[in-house]
Protein: Calcium-binding mitochondrial carrier protein SCaMC-3-like
Organism: Gouania willdenowi
Amino acid sequence: MLLILFFFSHQLTDCDSSVSDREREKRWAELFDQLDLNKDGRIDIMELRAGLAKQGFSKKSLEKMVAAGDTNNDGVLDFEEFTQYLRAHEKQLKLMFHRVDKNSDGHIDAAEIQDCLRSMGVSVSMKDATRILLSMDKDGTMTIDWHEWRDYFLFNPLTNMEEVARYWKRSMMLDIGEQLTVPDDFSEEEKKSGYVWRQLLAGAMAGSVSRTGTAPLDRIKVFRQVHGSSDVRGSVKNSFNFMLKEGGPWSLWRGNGVNVLKIAPETAIKFTAYEQVKKTTLVHERFVAGSLAGATAQTAIYPMEVLKTRLTLRKTGQYSGITDCAKQILQREGVTAFYKGYIPNLLSIVPYAGIDLAVYETLKFSWLNRNRGMVDPGVMVLVGCGAVSSTCGQLASYPLALVRTRMQAQASIKGTPKLSMLALFRNILIQEGVSGLYRGISPNLLKVIPAVSVSYVVYEYTRIMLGVEIEGRRGVRVKS
């Protein structure tokens, strides 16, 4: 069977003004024949999925397309329904094309994409707008003409520019432990409709399940970060056995409760701060606004970070719960103890978020540029991009994260000197070498794939339950 993409790139090249209805229906008939695999005169969901598999459409998108064209409600499309759908959808696409093509020259450039998104409350840089353009530009002219626009969206059941903007963003952020990434942009319509909070809630639910599932690896990471090579020598396995022997199987989840509890306030504060930063400072660069929002959120919830570290490291019977832990810290060490390690934590936001975002976007759009005309890279490609970018971000910021954790835990370990950030760095380098700054990173990297997998599945089901519909939803962002 000929590829549908090949068919369009070679057959849909006439000017609309010179194409008669007969010629257009002839092309549609050839296309219908290609999709009708069993030659019964009807196209069902399975045939659409097979015929359009390489364009990456979700089952939900194809079901939406069939529902839009299925006038007799029999669950399939005959030729008449198929052509009626294409004709009506082309008209919608034409209106959307003209809305973006503000100067009415028949071509859409990167500036027009940027202006269109900004008019809907979504700020993007010229670089990002150019990347969107390149994913659709088949002939290398650095513009999108009507044919390229139509071919790209013909089988995508988008009905307005708000849906196109959402599709361009390809937004779905997966949580694998610590929310250091840059928040997403949403249009004004999405904010007013409640879509934003439903999506954030779906992400929080996914993060809760994901963090709980990978909590043992997270505890091993924290344990090795704090104790270094002095108390537990050897491999990750030795650390695991030590904790299992000290507190039993349930001890592997120590600190997970507060780690889950802090997801909701951190997400809400970060998103709210991100919106305010963009409005009050006129900062349109997503990374800068995101870093400031991340710093604000971390400042507000940082005491929970300290509690998480202390509870993760606690010995059997040391604390009865979160409240008891907070009470003991306050009585013995004072209020300032809740902000131990705050400075290295704040400093780690910039290198992590910057490198993670830059590497992810570079990998994703490099793939799209090499595979022009593909609707979606697919889950595996994007999860791979996220895993690589997350790893790069961790490698850059991990020494700061390690120092932060040790500063948070210093007062709880007898005989440990209360060192400053710089003194700790120097002490680690002298006693453990450069590798000491990366102690505990192996379990942190090991949890990436299982965390993303669990988070993706939970996110999908929660999103469906909450009615969060995302066209092109396979745009996975990993939050680490």
